[in-house]
Amino acid sequence: MVHLNRQIDGATPGFARPLSKSERTRQRILDSAARVFASKGFAGVSLRDIASAADTKAGSLYYHFASKDELVEAVLRHAIEEMHQHVRDAVDAAADEGAAGRLKAAISAHTESVMERTDYAKALLRISSQIPDDVRERHNKHARAYGEYWGQLFNDARDEGAIRVDLDLTLARLLVLGAMNWTVEWPASLWSPESITSTLNKIVFEGIGTDDVDEEAVRALH
Amino acid sequence: MVHLNRQIDGATPGFARPLSKSERTRQRILDSAARVFASKGFAGVSLRDIASAADTKAGSLYYHFASKDELVEAVLRHAIEEMHQHVRDAVDAAADEGAAGRLKAAISAHTESVMERTDYAKALLRISSQIPDDVRERHNKHARAYGEYWGQLFNDARDEGAIRVDLDLTLARLLVLGAMNWTVEWPASLWSPESITSTLNKIVFEGIGTDDVDEEAVRALH
DNA sequence: GTCTATAAGCGGATAGAC
DNA sequence: GTCTATCCGCTTATAGAC
């Protein structure tokens, strides 16, 4: 699964200038690194592992990246931009469905990214707590923009009256994102992304509880 | 924060035989390993790191553990048993509150384990995807028992009529556990475990939406 | 039981041939 | 641009003194 989103990595959005050999190799290394990082973590992966997955040699990586840290930073940067773009596209496509509809679309898109779309999203979620501090600090700057985008989605839905007001909205957002992100730790998925997002959206918006059974009332019966 | 649950590690439950020097050292090494694994992952941690945290030398670890793999396996085993015990205690204490009340108690207890109780839980969640395959396979055997315990909690709540029947209950359980587990990835927690469990239980049982929440009824209960 | 010393090998990174 | 060869520090693990 090769990604050629030059709107993301390149400097000339929209233009179809063919990739140079060097750019193609660089991309192949990034893709391989994402795949290997996603399955084995950060520290557990050697540059020889990555080179082998990219069908080249460890020494050759240094023509494209100055260090392992710089390579992983590029992977994380690509990952967050790709996820953000995928979610933004889904939200834009649901533009006229109201804030609650847009939030649901975002939840579906983010889950899709984690579960099936690319190794970049999986690598991002799996290794962002294992990387050197300076790399993480730079990465957090990009990640924060994505978090704030989600904050806006939640705020809009609440302003629309679709979210109850007795919730800490930041906390709610982090918990919902956590439920999606943790799917990266599931073994081979027995469920389709559709069934997962459907179930998650039901739980998030309506809860698992039945309407007619009230917790306090149930307790009072005993 | 040292743990002396000999019901878990030892063979003689309930009896207060003093720990031998060797047992105490072994426990100190385990505690230190859990702490270091929790913050730096598995592959990124050297035996010197662990030894240093336990105030001893790398070579000395081999008197207590045959290999790094065996050490991490002991950490994971302790972690899962401690979490399971903590949740079971909370559920037992809520025995007469109905199945839904017991499930809420379990959610609170599991979140507590992840957020503040021990380094073991954090290490478990952070590294279980990074360890060698054979270690993970043995670990999964123990983890499965814990998963089945949660499955029973959800089943009981549904049988009681407290959970809507249009949900894939296994999927719901995994998503709810995921929301809790992902809190391990949060930076320094700005929230108390109480506010987190309160918000999470609201979302899980009632959802974030306003559609099916009877505001009058909620207010009347307080 | 714990230490020091060390073996054997893997890690990131560099130099220089092609 | 990519390769091979290599440096050198760090890793797990062992041996043997105390």
Automatic annotation (TrEMBL), chains A, B:
Keywords noted in UniProt: DNA-binding, Transcription, Transcription regulation
PROSITE patterns: HTH_TETR_2 (PS50977)
Superkingdom to which the source organism belongs: Bacteria
Residue ranges occupied by any HTH tetR-type domain in the UniProt entry: 23-83
Protein name: TetR/AcrR family transcriptional regulator
Positions of the DNA-binding region: 46-65
InterPro entries noted in UniProt: Homeodomain-like_sf, HTH-type_TetR-like_transc_reg, HTH_TetR, KstR2_TetR_C, Tet_transcr_reg_TetR-rel_C_sf
One Gene Ontology molecular-function label: transcription cis-regulatory region binding
Start and end residues of each stretch annotated as Disordered: 1-23
Protein source organism: Nocardioides marmoriginsengisoli
Pfam families (alphabetical): TetR_C_24, TetR_N
